[in-house]
Amino acid sequence: MNVDLLKIIAVGSGGFIGAVFRYLISIFAQSQFPSSKFPYGTVAANLIGCLVIGFLAGLFELKSWANPEFRLFIFVGILGGFTTFSTFSHETFLLWENGKFLMSLLNIGVQVIFGFVFVWVGFQIVRLFS
């Protein structure tokens, strides 16, 4: 196994930044709906992450940005630390387990459908201005 220390540092430092921003966004979004059990914080982090990854993927593809360490820093590190499928899945499970079936299905629909749409929108923004 060939280990590239620069790539590990890029992913690790990006992950730290992404995780901190995710925590801050989650707290802010959830604080806007203090009495709700719906996971607004995770939804906000995941949808913002989808928009950003779509936008950046468009830049990287259409502008041919090729630095592999920078890509790892952004995509795997920052965005990997910022968005989270495991938290989404756990919160959906908890909603379902607590009998909030409609809310759990709403959470799945919002994050999957809007996540896809946000990635597409981010990419189209770059395409529009290229």
Explain what you see:
With 130 residues, the chain is an all-alpha fold. The protein has one domain (5-128). The protein is 82% helix and 0% strand. It is built from five helices and no strands. It has helices at 5-31, 40-62, 68-82, 85-97, 101-128. Helix 2 packs parallel to helix 5. Belongs to the fluoride channel Fluc/FEX (TC 1.A.43) family.
Descriptors:
mainly alpha
Give the gist of this structure.
This protein is mainly α. 82% of the residues lie in helices and 0% in strands. It is globular, with a radius of gyration of 16 Å.
Topology:
Layout lengths: L4 H27 L8 H23 L5 H15 L2 H13 L3 H28 L2
Broad structural category = mainly alpha
Shape: globular
Order of helices and strands: HHHHH
Q: Termini separation (Å)? A: 39 Å
Pfam family, one: CRCB
Catalytic activity: fluoride(in) = fluoride(out)
Main location: membrane
Binding site for Na(+): 80, 83
